Amino acid sequence: MSPVFTVHPVSWHDGEPLLRTVRESVFIREQQVPEELEWDGLDAVCRHILALSPKGEAIGCGRLTPQAQIGRMSVLPEWRRLKVGTAMMEALLADARGRHLPGVLVHAQVHAVPFYRRFDFTEHGETFMDAGIPHIEMRLRF
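^ that's the sequence the OP posted. Answer follows.
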């Protein structure tokens, strides 16, 4: 049986310390994304999702920008492959659909393309570099 976790919508105002913990661990330390690129100034206007362990520790997060872009999807290494990312994506997509958005897009790290394809995202355009990591734009229409 997989470890139990919960997924919650949270505002940047209320969730910042926990959201920062996950993103600093995954993007800044693990993937070596420069801090000035990670902290882009958009968080206060985004809708966030936060995954918590049974002990209430932050284990994953993601966000939806006002421009209908899902991003900053991250899960701590020890929680990967346990469906945390899937649960977070389902929550973000439900939020986007609930707001009657026509669709969403992601700038997917190339290694994560199969994850997004499972939700019916499709690739658009060419691969590009962001923070030294290959990405591709993917879109999903509702």
